[in-house]
Write a structure and sequence with these properties.
This protein is α+β, with helices and mostly antiparallel strands. It is built from 10 helices and 9 strands. Helix 2 crosses helix 3.
Length: about 280
Amino acid sequence: MYLSCNIKFLRKRRGRTQDDVAVALKLKRSTLSGYENGIAEPSLETLIALSSYFTVSVDTLLRVDMATLSESQLGEIERGYDAYVRGGKLRVLATTVNSDNNENIELVPEAAKAGYSTGYADPEFIAALPVFRLPFLSDNRKYRTFQLKGDSMLPIPDGAWVTGEFLQDWNHIVDGRAYIIFTLNEGIVFKMAENRIASDGKLILYSLNPVYEPYEVHVSEIKEVWQFVNYISSELPDPVVPERHIYSTVAGLKRDIQRIKRRLGADIEDISPER
């Protein structure tokens, strides 16, 4: 169990002294020190009080070495996305940080997608991926960039680099938004989602390109979900013709037809086709 080291880690992370925590929990400082040093164990009531004080579930305090988690993972827990609170399984993401302990953005090119299916949870595989940073993204979120393949999400071009923010709680998937979904069967896909987790335990995934039919994926098949943030591409999307331009084009065609009618000297609708 990791209770002793977690209490000490969380106390220092919050900038609290042993006296601060002991007073808040109505304990003796020496008692708290004993918990942190592993020479004493708290009662059930005190364990619950520690959980409430640090806003971390009892299971996480006992089972997870929080000092090994990345800043983004700790941020997820501190923002209330502790999966143990909901009785689920904590999704610990393999990640990399720079020399300042800030999260990198790992790049997963098309050539690395096959390896990602087996190495997504392997720290050595993730550490071998190219990394970069985008200064306009938060240091307290975890991002990863995947290379898009195919035309299912046109007008986003084939070969574009799509960046997503790691989503710990899949119940927060919003209908109609775009996500990078990783499953062992389908691999990495970039789709619009319809959230039916609460009712059916599944997502309905849609392509922007209407040629592709939507399909279902059960949550048991999903390994990671990344919420779309932005994309980078050297190609411009196909232009969308403005509506007023379409109207002016139709009006121009009507004027051309009228001119043809006048030149023929007869109503074009009265001209019978040759037999």
